[in-house]
Amino acid sequence: MYCPSCRAEFREGFFRCEDCDVALVETLPEERVKPGYVELATVFTEGEIALIKANLDQAGVDYYFHGEQAHRLAPLPFGARLMVREDQKEEAEALLGGTGQP
Fold first, then answer.
1. How far is it, in rounded angstroms, from Cα 98 to Cα 89?
2. Whole-model pTM?
3. Residue 82 to residues 3, 38, 44, 58: CA-CA distances in angstroms?
4. Where are the domains positioned within the chain?
5. For residue 56, which of 87, 17, 82 has the smallest C-alpha distance?
């Protein structure tokens, strides 16, 4: 058993973390590391940005929309591009139906 808050491991028979006062779980979720510099890959160039963001947020995919606000400055020949961490590209493409463009 593990504490989901402090990640401490407990022996059988324990059901609450004494330090955090939260219920223990059988397995810990994968710990997400805040990335420093990472390579980004374009997954999507056009679409319903709010819906895409909601899906990616729910799945825990880190993303950045390059040029999302650029249309306010001047007309550009390209739309916003969805950028994700290279190691999350396949997951993002699967969530969005694999319609990404390089």
1. 10
2. 0.43
3. 35, 15, 5, 16
4. 1-31, 40-95
5. 82
Candidate from 12-16, 43-47, 55-59, 60-64 with smallest mean pLDDT: 43-47
35-48 pLDDT per residue, tens: 677 787 776 655 57
| Tokens 């504490």 sit on residue | 3
Q: How many whole angstroms separate alpha carbon 22 and alpha carbon 14? A: 11
**25 pairs with which residues across the strands?**
2
Paired tokens of 4: 């989901």
At residue 64, the 3 state secondary structure works out as: strand
From first CA to last CA, the distance across the chain in angstroms is 44
Report the alpha-carbon distance of residue 35 to residue 95 in Å, rounded.
21
Question: What whole-number distance in Å separates Cα of residue 14 and Cα of residue 24?
Answer: 8
In the numeric block, which tokens belong to residue 17? 């973390």
Q: Which residues pair with 65 in a beta bridge?
A: 82
What is the helix, strand, coil percentage profile of the chain, to 5?
Answer: 25, 20, 60
If you search the block for the tokens 């973390």, which residue do you land on? Answer: 17
